[in-house]
Amino acid sequence: MSSKIIGAVDIGTSKVVVLIGEILDGSSLNIIGMAESTSYGMRKGEVVDLRAVSDCTHAAIIEAEKRAGAQIEGIYLSQSGGHLQGFNNVGVVTVSDPLNRVSEDDVRRAEQNAKSKVLANDRVYIHHVRSGFALDGRPIEQPVQMVGDKLEVTYWHIHGDKSKISDQIHVINGIGLDVDDMIVSSIAVGSMVATEPEKHSGVLVVDIGCGTTDYALFRGGRILRTGVIPVGGDHLSNDLSIGLRLSQKNAERIKLRDGKAMLEKDDKHANVMMVGDMMIGDRIIPKASIGRILQARVEEIFTILKNKLGSALSPQNLPAGIILTGGTSKLPLIDEVARNLLGVEVRCGRNPDWISTGELRDPIYSTSLGLLYYGLTAQRTPVSKSHNPPKRKSRLLGSLTGFFK
Amino acid sequence: MNWRELNQNRRKRPTTAVARKRKWKAVGQMAALLAVVILLVTGSIAGIIYSQQLIDKVQSKSTPTPLRNISFVTDGMLNRDWLVTSFPHVLEATPLSLDIAGLKRDLEATGQIRQAQVAIILPDTLQITLQERQPVLRARVRERDGSITTLLIANDGTVFTGHGYPAAMLQRLPVAADLRLRRHEGRFLPVAGMEVVTRLIDSAKIHVPHLAADWQTIHFGRLQQDTQAPDALITIGGRQVQQIVFAPGNFEDQLLRLREVVNHAAQENRGPMRRIDLSFREKAVVQFN
C-alpha cells in the first residue's frame, strides 16, 4: 500500500490554515493533521512582510506535522490576492483531415493556439482552465472524430504577478518544502461547497475572506470565470473603526458581536455598549450606525461583483444561484443583501457531508479542504499528454488535468 | 510563462527558527537512520568475522590429537585388550578421523557382540559400551586345512569364535553334533533350529536342572532340515542317560515325563538307562543297559 503525505496551505489575510492529508494508493484521503495560526504580514491576500508570513506559516506547518505525526512531502498552496487576473482566449484551427474528421492532433493544435498568448514579463500563468469546444460554432463536449471545418477551444487563463507568487512560494521553500501545485482559492473553495449538479446548471461561489473576495463561476460542470475583489471582512472592520471612531480591536469585536449586513427595523433605535464592561472608556453605540456602515460596504462588494460579471450574473445563467462562503459570509443577513442586490438565489456554503470532523465543516476550512481534494484528484488523474510538460516533477502534470481539461 | 517555471530553491537556508528546527530534526532523523543502518551493517560484518574466527579456532583446536582414553564397558567377557588387539587403529585415530559408524559395524560383525555403542567424548575419549551374546552350545568345526576349531553358538543361533571365556565354562557347554554350518561372505550363518533347542535347554534348566547339567551333546541331525517335519527329533547325549530323544514342541510335558521316568528308575534301582525316547505322545520308551 503506497501512501503520500500532502499538505494544504491556505495563507489568508487573517489566518493561516494547514491541513495534512494522507493519500492511500492514490484513491483515498485521510485528514491526519490540522493547525491554524493568526496570519501576520499579509494584506489583501498578498505578502507584505515575508519574514512575518514565514513565521506564522512555518509555525502552522510544524504544528500540523506534530499533530499528524508525519512529515509533509509536498505542498498544495492556495493563491489569492488582487493581482490575480483572468481572460478568455479562443484557439481556432482548421480541421486538417480531408474528410473533415477532427483528430487528436487538431485538438492539440487548438489548445496550443489558445494557450499561446504571451504575458508581460512580470506576469505568470497559474491555470489554463478549458471552458469548452466548439465545432463550426456548435458547442461540443468531445470533438475527436466529429466532422467539421473549424475547431475552436476556449480557455479561461488565470495569471498573477510573478513577484507576488514567488513570495508565497519562497515562504514554503523556506521550510524546506516544494510547492507541488498552486490552486486559486476560489476554485479550491468551489470544489468543496458546490455540488456537481450545481456546477452543471450554473452557480457562483463567492468566498468573502478577510482581505479579499474570491469568486468562481461554474456552468456545464466547468469553470467559466474566476476573479478576486480586493475587498473583504477587514474593510468592514476598518469602516466601523473610522465611522465610529473605534480601535481596530473594538471594531472587529463589534462586527462579530453585533454586526449585521443590513439594518433591520428593530435595530433603528437600539444601542449597544462598545465593550460592555461599563468601565471608563466604554460607550454607547447606536446599532443603526453599525448596520448602515456594514450594509454600505457589503453592498459595495456585491456591486463590484455585479459589475465584473455583468450579464453572467443573472437568474437565467445561475439557476443554482450564489453560494456565499468564507469568514465574512457568517455576517447575519449578508445573504439577504446579496439576494436583494443581485436578484438571484443565495445560500450559505457548507462543506460536504463526507467531511466527518465537525470542526472541518466550518466554511473557513473550505479552501484547505479543496486543496486536499485537488491533491487527491491529481493523484488519481493519469499523466497528461501535454506538449509542454512542466520541468520539475512528472507527477505534477497530473494536477493540470481533472479540473482544467 | 507558467508559475512552475519559477525557481523553487529548496536548498536555500531555512528562513525561520521553526524551519531550522524542522531541518535539524529531519537531519537528526536521517542521521539516526544512517547510524542504525551502519550499526546493523557493521554488526553483521563483525558477526560474520567473529563466527569465521570461531570456526577457525575450533578447527585449529580439533586437529590431530589422538584418542588417549578408551572407556570400555561390557556385560560379557571381552575387554580393552581384546579391543586394541582386534582393532589396533583406534589407538592412532583422532576424534575427527575415527569412523564411529564403521567401528560399530565391525564390532557387531564379530558375532560375540549383540549390540555396540560407540561414542567420542571430546576432546580425546572413545567410549564403547557392549552387550554380548551368551554361548549355549559349542561346536567343533573342521577347517579346510584339516585343523579342528571350536566355535560357540548363542541362543539365537549366531556362531562366533568366542574370546575371554574360561576353559572350564566352555567345557561345561554341550556340544552341538551332526551340525551343518553354512558360510556366507566368510561368516557362518545362524544355526537353523537353534531357537527350538534353546527353548528345550531353557525349559530343562527349570524343570530338570540336575539332568540338564549332565547333557554333553545335542544332535541336530534330524532337526536342521525342518523343525516342523513329523520325523524331526532332538537327541541329547549324557552320562546319566546315554540318549534322550525329544520331539520339537511341548517340551514341558516331555521334561516332566523324563523326570518321572528317571525318578521311577531310581526308586526301582533299575540301573543306568541307555535310551529314553519322549517323542511319542504321553509315552516314554525306555531302554536299560
Q: How would you summarize this macromolecular structure in one to three sentences?
A:
Chain A has 405 residues and is α+β, with helices and mostly antiparallel strands. Helix content of chain A is 33%, strand content 29%.
Tell me the β content of chain A.
Answer: 25-35%
CATH top level label of the largest domain in chain A: Alpha Beta
What order do the helices and strands of chain A follow? Answer: EEEEEHEEHEEEHEHHEEEHHEEHEHEHH
Strand order, sheet with most strands of chain A: 3-2-1-6-11
For the largest interface, the chains and their residue counts are: A-B, 35 and 19 residues
Total number of strands of chain A: 18
Over the alpha carbons, how many angstroms does the gyration radius of chain B reach?
A: 39 Å
The CATH superfamily of the largest domain in chain A is identified as ATPase, nucleotide binding domain
User: Major sheet of chain A, described briefly?
Assistant: 5 strands, mixed
Order of helices and strands of chain B: HEHHEEEEEHEEEHHEEEHEE
Could you tell me how far the N terminus lies from the C terminus of chain A, measured between alpha carbons in angstroms? 29 Å
Give the CATH level 1 class of the largest domain in chain B. Alpha Beta
What do we call the CATH topology of the largest domain in chain A? Nucleotidyltransferase, domain 5
Write out the strand line-up for the largest beta sheet of chain B, numbering strands in chain order. Answer: 7-10-11-12-13-14
